[in-house]
Structures are given as C-alpha cells and as structure tokens.
Specification:
Number of strands: 0
Length: 185
C-alpha cells in the first residue's frame, strides 16, 4: 500500500489509470483514505495538546476519530459530487465513469494527507498541514482527469465545484469536533 500511496503522491497518471480500471483496488483505496484521515487527525490532536489546550485524551481521541470520519465522508461525498459535476456540467466528449472509478482514484489521491501527521511540529506544522491539503488537491486533479477522461482544465473546474460543496460538509464536521474537544470556559 505504501508504494501505491507514493505513486499517487507523485501524481503518476499511469497509476491513476490503472486504479480506475481495477475494481480490486477498492480495498486499498479504503486503506489509503483511513490512513490519511488517521494520520491527519493524530497530527491535529498532537498540535492541540502541545499548544497547551486542555482537550485531554478524550478530546484528542475525538479529533483522531473526526479525522477518519471526515476523510471517509469527504471521500464519498467528493467522489459522488465529482462524478455528478463531471458527467453533467463539465463533461467532455470522452467522459465516461462510474462511482467506483471515482472512489478508487480519489481514494488514492488522499495519500498526501498522511503528511498532516507532522502538523504538530513547531513553526512548520501549519505549513505542512496546508501543503498536505494542497498536494491532495493536485493529486485529486490527476485522479479526476484520468477517471473522467478529461483535460486538466475540466478536472480543475470539476474539483473546484465539487470541493466547494464538500468543504461545507467537512467544515461543519470539524467545527463540531473542535467544539466537542475544546472545553468551554
């Protein structure tokens, strides 16, 4: 799985084509999404504990769980929205895909989220978390381009529309987790 994550993180278009065509890659895609969410959530929990927040171990655990849940919800929602947008709004003459293809390719595209485990590092942690998110967007661009047989411009348009829709849902989930993990007063 690590080799596959590295190929996805390197934005390897051939790799994404292989994943698109291989239904058996779904189990690995689920593992990549889970690992990315877990590691990003752990990084957030460590960062908050190091900043001296009184979240406690229960609050830290909630952030880890929120990272995994957000990764899964985001993955499914982003895949479904990207499929809908890509096949109804931004489609091209060669566009043909199903939800499984988007789930597999976008699942692997989340591999850079693993870098989020380092967000607890003083002075560079925030930049590393932002890098993980931006890198994931770059990887998702290649994933969507390959899955929907698009140009890069169509993939970017599809992802912008889809990302805005799914960011609202994820933002609400993380806001809930943050309020749950941070004591009032």
């Amino acid at each position: 799985m690590i080799t596959a994550m590295l190929r996805a993180a390197r934005l390897d278009a051939t790799f994404f084509e292989q994943v698109e065509a291989d239904p058996s890659a779904m189990a690995q895609a689920r593992g990549v999404v889970t690992a990315g969410g877990l590691l990003f959530g752990l990084g957030a929990a460590f960062r908050i504990m190091l900043e001296g927040s009184a979240v406690g171990t229960g609050g830290a655990a909630m952030l880890v769980v929120a990272g995994i849940v957000a990764a899964w919800v985001g993955w499914w929602l982003w895949s479904a929205v990207a499929l809908w947008v890509g096949t109804t709004i931004t489609f091209g003459p060669a566009t043909e895909a199903d939800l499984g293809q988007l789930l597999r390719t976008l699942g692997f595209a989340t591999a850079p989220l693993a870098l989020g485990v380092l967000q607890w590092l003083p002075a560079v942690g925030g930049a590393l978390a932002a890098t993980a998110l931006l890198w994931t967007l770059a990887s998702a661009t290649v994933a969507v381009r390959q899955a929907l047989d698009f140009t890069t411009a169509r993939a970017v348009a599809t992802l912008i529309i889809g990302w805005l829709l799914h960011a609202v849902v994820l933002g609400a989930l993380f806001a809930w987790a943050w309020m749950t993990a941070t004591p009032v007063g």
